[in-house]
Amino acid sequence: MMDVDGVIHEPVRLRILSILTRVDLAAFKFLVSTLDPSRGNLSSHMDMLERVGYVDVPKRFDGRVPYTEFAITDGGRKALGEYWIVLDQIRASPQGDGAA
Length: 100
What we know:
Radius of gyration: 16 Å
CATH topology: Arc Repressor Mutant, subunit A
Helix content: 40-55%
Structural class: alpha+beta
Shape: elongated
Largest sheet: 4 strands, antiparallel
CATH class: Mainly Alpha
């Protein structure tokens, strides 16, 4: 059995990746309003997800205003899929049912 991916297992990052699987791009403001973290907290989580290659961070400008968006990468999709498989294996194992 594989180990649970600690990067994904953090609740805010799990929610971010779950949202990103449903959209092509998500704006920073949208994720702040949807997830309700502080802006700094969301930035830290996105930095981690970008560092491990789970998200891309395309940036553009609307005039002079920077506009940051996020997209899940193929590697992020694969990692999230494997994460769910590992959780299902844990749930299905005799040790995962609370039995001693």
